[in-house]
Amino acid sequence: MSLLAEWEAGTHSADGLTYPTYRRGSGPGVVVMHESPGLTPEVIAFGDELVGHGFTVVMPHLFGSSHAPPRTWEGARVIPRLCVTREFTMLGTGRTAPLAEWLRSLARELHAHVGGPGVGAVGMCVTGGFALAMMLDPVVIAPVVAQPAAPIPLGPRRAADVNLTPDDLAVVARRAREGCPVLGVRYRHDWVTGTRFDTLSKALGDAFIRVELEGHGHSTLTDHRHPDAVERVVGFLTERLAARSMDS
To answer: Where does the record place the Dienelactone hydrolase domain (predicted)?
Structure first.
């Protein structure tokens, strides 16, 4: 049986793009963006975990495999494909991925469906920076940046880049100053994340909640799942979304 059998399959179209989506749960909304190589069993399990904590989760299927373990060669093929896909910015610096507008539209649709104070956004690996780009829409009030890996950290400039234009980063910084914190989780020695956490600390100050785990893993919430990372993410989403829903 498919791991997505209990998820409601659909599609979302915006900005000239259409992608499949999977929705499940009740309560405040969270958009979970999968990492490379795709919508794997580990990503789905994390989505199920958030559903169990009382959230309505929407997972867009953006690339790669879905609901089945990827073939051994798939991971090596996904990143080169993303490098030449216009919706992603795997090599350029000072740019916001074009896919961000589609994701903001998905967040607005989710919020219209579930209500509440706003929605959360969890980006992982190559989609890590998308949670920041989604902050340009005020409906996103709980952004989580998990092991951001784009652009590919080849050289110090790319390693420090957070996948946003300077103007978009300024909007993110303003929203942070106005009370929308950002949670970042990564393994401390994960070279793929470059120096992006330093960039975010400088830009957002104390509004960037920086969680760095000991060890040499990468995927903090899935393949190399760290219980402290999951606990911090669930706690952040609960405080920003569920607790605020009860207060309103």
So the answer is: 26-144
pTM for this entry: 0.93
1 is a domain residue? no
pLDDT in tens, 61-109: 998 876 555 544 445 565 656 554 667 775 678 889 889 999 999 999 9
Q: Domain for residue 3, yes or no? A: no
Written as one letter, the residue type at 82 is: L
Q: Which residues form the domain of 226?
A: 8-247
What CATH number should be reported for the domain holding residue 187? 3.40.50.1820
Helices in 64-165 by DSSP H: which ranges? Answer: 74-83, 99-114, 130-133, 156-160
